[in-house]
Every structure is written in C-alpha cells, then in structure tokens.
C-alpha cells in the first residue's frame, strides 16, 4: 500500500494530526483553539455556527473549544444585536496575545513535520497539496 498516494496522504495526515495535538498540548492548547482564534482575528467577530463553517470544525467541538477559550479569557460571547438567539464571538486582547503564541507553536510544528524536506520541497508539497485539495481546479 505504500505506493498508493491515498494511503500515504492518510497516514501522513494521521501523523500530522497527532503531532499537532501533542505539541499544542505542551502549552495547554488544542489545534481547534488556534483555528478559531486565527479565524476570528482574520475575519472578525462571528457566530458559533459561522465559525464552524469557516473552520470545518463540528458545531459541538466549536462550542466546547469556545467554552475553553472563554474560560481563559481569550474570547467573549455576546448576544447578536440583530438576532438575540445567536451569540457573536470576539477575540479579547488576551486572546490576541494567545494567538501569537499559538502561531509561533504552529510554526514549530510545521518545521518538525516537514523536517525531512528542503525549503524547495516544502513549497512544492504545498503547491501539490493545494492542487489536490481544489480537485485539480486552477487556483
């Protein structure tokens, strides 16, 4: 099976997922924390449902991760002024600082994951994976 790209991608993804989980746990975080904080910083305040769609995180996992982030003072939930049934999530100044820390850890994780590859190989890998993710559609 080691000659099948689908098998190699699956095994590599499992290793990457495990590595991300272990390394973020070293600083009391999860990969979901990084994805959610980064999305909020990049795109601005959002509902929990929107965050789930934007990050491809299941809604129940979004809620659990936001509960953790809120408990640590990294995000705030406020009723949406246009729809009181929804909460709008925003990043706090403390959350902005945490996002910087998580981004640095994320870079370390990428370096560890891609250690066997040269800089040129890393760029080529990203190019090829991006092409596959798009289903071959030009970018």
UniProtKB/TrEMBL annotation:
Reading the lineage from the top rank, the first entry is: Bacteria
Q: Which Pfam families match?
A: MarR_2
Segments of skewed composition (Basic and acidic residues): 75-86
Q: Which GO terms describe its molecular function?
A: DNA-binding transcription factor activity
Region Disordered, annotated ranges: 75-98
Which residue ranges traverse the bilayer? none
InterPro entries, A to Z: HTH_MarR-typ, MarR/SlyA-like, WH-like_DNA-bd_sf, WH_DNA-bd_sf
Q: Which SMART domains did the record assign? A: HTH_MARR
- Location of the HTH marR-type domain: 1-134
One GO BP annotation is: response to stress
Q: Which PANTHER family match?
A: HTH-TYPE TRANSCRIPTIONAL REPRESSOR YETL, TRANSCRIPTIONAL REGULATOR, MARR FAMILY
Query: Which named protein is this?
Result: MarR family transcriptional regulator
Which organism is this entry from? Actinoplanes friuliensis DSM 7358
Q: Recall the taxonomic lineage recorded for the source organism.
A: Bacteria, Bacillati, Actinomycetota, Actinomycetes, Micromonosporales
